[in-house]
Amino acid sequence: MAFFESMLTLLLVAIVFLQVSRKFLIPYPTMLAIAGLAVASVPWAPEIGIDPQLALALFIAPALFDAAYDLPPRTLRQNWLPLISLAAIAVILTTAAVATVGIWMAGLPIAAAIALGAIVAPPDAVAATAMLDRFDLPRQTYVVLKGESLLNDAVSLLIFTAAVAASTSPAFFARTLPELALAIPGGMIVGYAAGRLYMIIGTRLAGTLGGTLLEFVATFGTWIIAERLHLSAILAIVVYAMVIARYMPERQSARHRIHSYSVWEAAVFLLNVVAFLLMGLQARQIFLDMEPGRRTYALTVALAVFITVVCVRMLWVLGYNVVMTRRRMRRTTKQEPPTLAMSIVAGWCGMRGLVTLAAALALPFDFPERDVILLSALGVVLGTLIIQGLTLGPLIRFLRFAPDTSWEKGLSDARADLLESALAELEGKESKAAAILRHVYTSEREIARKGEHPREVSEMDELRRSIITAKRKKLAEMRRTDEIDDDIFHILEQELDWAELAASSPGQEQIVEG
Length: 514
Prior knowledge:
The chain has helices spanning 2-24, 28-40, 52-69, 73-78, 80-106, 110-120, 125-132, 139-168, 172-205, 209-228, 233-247, 254-289, 292-329, 340-348, 354-361, 370-399, 406-426, 432-449, 454-457, 459-480, 486-502, 506-509. The chain is mostly helical.
C-alpha cells in the first residue's frame, strides 16, 4: 500500500511538473526525474525492490516496441551511416570508456564494468524528441536523433545481457556465448512469427476492448516466449514491432488506431513514472545503508561516469562531423555531412532515461558492486536530464538554425495528391452530392497547394465547428434538465467528438504532454 501511495503521489507531482515542462520548454522526463527523486526522498517512502527479470519485461518491452514502431525500415536505409555512427559505434565507445573508468576507479570486475557501460550508454529518444518537437530544426537532424533510439537500445541491451551472463556464469565462453549467438537469429524469427500471428488475431478483434488488451498481451507475450526459449527477447520485440507497424495500420479502423495510440502513450508515460520512482526508492535505501566513506566513493564514481558519458558522445559526434566533412571535400562520399551546429545539438542531445533505469533495476541482487552501479546509473540519468535537458532549448535558440521547410512541403504535396485522388474518384459522377463534394475538394486542393491545411482556413469547417459548439451546449443543457439519460448523452457526445475531429486541423487536436 505504501508503494501505491508513493506512486499516486509521484503521478500527482508529475502532472503538476508537466505544466511547468510545457510552459518553460523543458523535456518532461527531466521533470519526472526531479519528481521521482523528491518523492523517494520523503521520510515515509517505502523500502521496495523489483525482480530483475520483471524489470526487463515490464519496462524494456514497451519502450522497445514504442521505438521500433515509430522507426520504418526506409529511415534505416536512408540514414544508415549516421545511425550506425550514433547507435552502434557511439554506444560501443561509451561502454568501453565507462568500463575503463569502472575498472580503474572502482576496481570493478571486467564483466561488471562492461555491464555498467552498457547500462548508461543508450540515450533516451523520449527526452530528446519532447524538446526537439518544439523547435524548427533541420529535418535530417530530427530524424536521426529520433531514429537512433531503437538501435542504441538494442545494441546496449545485447551488450548488457552478455555482460551479466558472463559475470554470473562460469561457463560463459563454453556454453553461454554460443547460446547468445543462436539467440540473435532465433529472436528475430520469433518476433516475425509473433507479428504475423498478431495480424491474424488482432484484425478480428480490432475496435474491441479485447483488441486493445491483446496489444499488451502480445507485446509482453513475445518477450516472455523468447525468454523461455533462451532467445533474444530484445530483437524479438524489435522485429515484432516493425512487422506490426508495416502491415497492421491499414487493417485497422480510424477509431481503433486513435484509441490504440492514446492507450500506448499513456502506458509508456506511466511506466516512466514507475521506473523513476522505483529507481529513486532503491537508490535512497542503498545510499542510507552505505558507510559515509563508501558514499563519497560511490558519488565520485557516479560523477566520473557522468562526465565520461557526456564527453565521449560529444567528442565522437564532433569527430564524425570532421571526418564526413573531409570526405565530402575530397568527394569520396555522396553523404551530406552535418553542419557544426547540427553536430553540437546531436552531441548534447544525450539524455538518458527509461532504458538506463530499467537495465539498472534488472541487475541481479547478488551482482558485483550492484550498489555502486545503480547509483552511477541514477547519477547519469539525473545529470543528463537536468543539465542537458535544461540547457538544450537555450542551446538550440543560440545556434539559430535556418528554417527547414522540407517536411511541411512534403506534407502539403502529399495532402494535395490525396485530394487529387478524391477528385478522380468523383469523375463522371453528376449527382448533386458529387457536385458539392467536387467543389469542396477542388477548393481544398488549391489551399493545400499553398502549404496550408484546408480545415484551418475553410469557412465551411469553421462554421461546422461553431455548430458543434452549439450542439455541445444544447446537449449539456438537455442532460442537466434530465431530458435525456446518461447513456444517450455519452453516445451523442462521442458523435460530436468525432465530428469535431473531422472538422479540425491536426494541430488543433494534437495532444501535448500535460
